[in-house]
Write a structure and sequence with these properties.
Structural class: alpha/beta
Strand order of the largest sheet: 1-2-3
Number of strands: 8
Low-confidence stretches: 83-88
Shape: elongated
Mean pLDDT: 79
Number of helices: 5
Length: 184
């Protein structure tokens, strides 16, 4: 790796175990900074959800595992200055102040929960979100009993309204046994 130049580097980090000071990662971090001192590449760090985040000597995006493959591509695009505009491929515009979803000349009014749910799905584009997680993160519920029924009803309403505005409802995918995913 001595004199190589990299546009991007993806580092799979296991995290720092509790009770350890992260000495092995610190050594790697130091070595990496020395090797890449002239021209640091776009860095992407892969880290398990819930793992303690080590100090990164070279700043970079952190993608939490497990993740959809698209998340790495999105992180790379953002780091090298070519971000994809979320929802813009379809021309979607979600106005949370008025709960209005627009696409071109078409628009539809959303309920508060529909707007919040769609904003959350768009923010986590490409990620598969389980109904229990949606209840906690969108509805602020602490008990996930009945998650699938409540979430399924609101997703169904959102799909119907997306169909009115876009002509299709395929922006929200159902991943059988796993949850829902928003794809722009």
């Amino acid at each position: 790796m001595g004199s190589s130049v990299f546009d991007a580097l993806i580092v799979d980090v296991q995290g720092v175990p509790r009770g350890e000071n992260g000495a092995s990662f610190a050594q790697f971090n130091q070595w990496l900074a020395q090797v890449l001192q002239k021209q640091p590449p776009a860095m992407i760090y892969l880290l398990h959800k819930g793992a303690r985040r080590p100090h990164f000597r070279i700043e970079g995006a952190v993608v939490k595992k497990p993740f959809p493959l698209e998340a790495i591509g999105e992180a790379l695009r953002e780091r090298i200055g070519l971000p994809r505009h979320r929802g813009n491929e379809r021309g979607l515009d979600l106005d949370l102040a008025s709960n209005t979803l627009r696409c071109g000349e078409r628009q539809v009014h959303l309920t508060n929960i529909e707007a919040t749910l769609l904003a959350y799905l768009m923010e986590h584009e490409g990620e598969t979100l389980h109904p229990r997680d949606l209840l906690v993160d969108v509805w602020q519920y602490h008990d996930a009993a009945g998650a699938s029924t409540l979430v399924r009803a609101h997703v169904s309403n959102l799909r119907r309204k997306l169909r009115e505005v876009l002509g299709t409802s395929d922006a929200i995918q159902t991943i059988r046994g796993k949850g829902y995913r928003f794809i722009a």
